[in-house]
UniProtKB/TrEMBL annotation:
Residues 499-510 have a biased composition (Acidic residues). Residues 499-518 are annotated as: Disordered. Keywords: Membrane, Transmembrane, Transmembrane helix. The chain crosses the membrane at residues 231-250, 262-282, 302-323, 335-356, 376-394, 406-430, 436-459. It comes from the Eukaryota. One of its GO terms (biological process) is response to pheromone. This is GPR180/TMEM145 transmembrane domain-containing protein. The lineage of its organism: Eukaryota, Metazoa, Ecdysozoa, Nematoda, Chromadorea. InterPro entries: GPR180/TMEM145, GPR180/TMEM145_TM. Residues 238-454 form the GPR180/TMEM145 transmembrane domain.
Length: 518
């Protein structure tokens, strides 16, 4: 890992504060790349602003593929104030900064001994090879002291300072940190006496922001999220197509009877579509301004979570026998109350995970935090609950063909319930730079696949509809007696045009005729 070094090292007075937007839920954690804020060194000696994943530099296009950190740091210094330090620290060295107490209680000499070992500073460290320091604040209205105004390759016009990151081997996270330390006359690291409030405004990009051919969906994003926008947009298109298919399916039955199960599935798809649309809006806004639309992001995540919980409810009801055991079976009130309680607890865990748990210095996500573990535990409870319900339903079923279908149905959707805890175990072995995209892709595909399977089963012309809303044994008996009466009943239930069907009374030795009649 190297840090690109400009012709002149910059002595820039500056400030930075941390505003990191990280949603640790199943799957997303966008870090703000346009950071603005204030730092009061008198109240907090060390301020970690943000972290950002810089991509591997392409040797064929080194200028346009390296990372850039550029912006402004201003403040009013009183006479006699020592300068303050702005430093960028790699993931490999960030542990040197952290101490056991929350105020980063290490002395300046112990903090900077390892961090500054290869850093360049024109007075005390002229042999340093890494451009990782800036003295702050910078003069108001001017570039930082050691910036070269005549070298356009090292400075982004309109900003006081520019730093470039070169990663020749692999992507890596870098942290932006403000520290109340400075080098004294003996070139020793000592505590700064400055209490001035500093204001900062910084951009972080993967690639040259001046490059007109840059990828708009990669420039503003940390490496771990560079493909997320395309993934959200592709998911949105898929759900919009699914909405159109469901609308067509329901229109077939609109004049007669639309099954409750199909209505409920429709709402699940609509909630998913709305949630993905809001998150896509946030990602597009983020690509434009580096900040995103936080309200849209939170609302989208909540809608997606509600849709997933409603899908769990539908599967639990189906496991209990709702829609399988005849129209007389009402949805269980106890089951709904239990589901609602667990869903509310899960939502509380979600809020705690977002508000209280995030730590910028550590790799914390939904699979490694205590609220995340609580959410996974609830998912496991749903899985066990579904397994018990479907087993009872299968044992109660008297007809072998329907019992076989229920066994396949239960096994398939039990996998959907159980995959998320399993993914949580595997996620710990995936580097954080790739984890978000892998989790997002797997969870999106799994949820979409589960909904698609249910839609296939519930479809008006599906071969599986014979297992719903009427006892399977009654269908067998009806097929042996009066096919015309059964056709009338089917028209009422499924709104089919029986003029195109030429059903004949079924023979006892031909149970496959049940499929043709229904």
């Amino acid at each position: 890992m190297n840090v690109a070094m400009p012709k002149y090292a910059k002595r820039c007075d500056g400030v930075k504060w941390l505003f990191v937007v990280c949603l640790s839920l199943q799957f997303s954690s966008t870090l703000t790349v346009h950071v603005k804020g204030i730092w009061k060194p008198g109240e907090q000696n060390i301020q970690v602003i943000t972290k950002f994943g810089f991509q591997q530099t392409d040797n064929r296009h080194p200028r346009t593929s390296r990372g850039f950190i550029y912006g402004n740091i201003t403040g009013v210094q009183r006479p006699g104030d020592d300068p303050l330090l702005f430093v960028i620290i790699s993931q490999a060295n960030i542990g040197l900064l952290h101490s056991e107490d929350s105020n980063y209680g290490k002395s300046c000499s112990s903090i900077m001994q390892e961090i500054a070992s290869n850093g360049f500073e024109s007075r005390c460290k002229p042999k340093g090879t890494a451009d990782i320091f800036r003295w702050v604040p910078c003069p108001a209205g001017k570039i930082c002291e050691e910036e070269d105004p005549d070298n356009s390759t090292t400075l982004i016009p309109g900003y006081q300072m520019t730093m470039q990151i070169v990663e020749p081997q692999m992507p890596e996270y870098w942290f932006l940190v403000l520290i109340g330390c400075h080098l004294n006359g003996n070139c020793s690291w000592v505590q700064s006496n400055s209490k001035s409030t500093l204001n900062y405004d910084f951009w972080l990009t993967n690639g040259d922001p001046q490059d007109l051919s840059k990828n708009p969906f990669g420039l503003q994003f940390s490496f771990d999220e560079q493909d997320a926008t395309q993934m959200y947009l592709a998911t949105l298109i898929a759900y919009l197509i699914l909405c159109a298919i469901i609308y067509h399916g329901r229109s077939i039955q609109r004049k007669h009877y639309s099954p409750t199960r199909l209505k409920l599935l429709s709402w699940i798809v609509y909630l998913k579509t709305a949630g993905v649309a809001l998150q896509s809006l946030n990602m597009l806004q983020f690509a434009a301004d580096g900040e995103g639309f936080l309200v849209a992001r939170l609302a989208g995540e909540v809608l997606r979570m509600i849709a997933t919980d409603v899908l769990c409810l539908m599967l639990l009801l189906l496991g209990r026998g709702w829609a399988f055991s005849g129209p007389s079976l009402k949805p269980s009130k106890c089951l709904i109350v239990g589901w609602a309680f667990l869903s509310i607890v899960k939502f509380i865990f979600f809020c705690c995970n977002f508000i209280f748990v995030y730590d910028i210095l550590h790799d914390v996500d939904v699979f490694s935090s205590w609220p995340g573990h609580g959410m996974l535990a609830i998912r496991i409870i749903f899985a066990i609950w579904f397994l018990l319900e479907i087993r009872v339903l299968i044992k109660r079923e008297k007809h072998h063909e329907k019992a076989t279908f229920l066994a396949h149905f239960g096994a398939g959707f039990l996998v959907w319930f159980a995959y998320l805890p399993g993914l949580g175990c595997i996620a710990h072995f995936i580097t954080l730079l790739w984890r978000f995209r892998i989790i997002l892709g797997i969870t999106t595909l799994a949820n979409f696949g589960a909904i698609l399977c249910l839609l296939h089963i519930f479809w008006p012309n599906s071969q599986y509809r014979k297992y719903f809303n009427i006892d399977y044994g009654n269908r067998l008996r009806a097929s042996r007696t009066d096919s015309n009466e059964l056709e009338d009943f089917e028209r009422l239930l499924y709104a089919e045009n029986t003029d195109s069907e030429n059903d004949s009374p079924a023979d006892d030795d031909q149970p496959s005729n049940i499929h043709n009649m229904i």
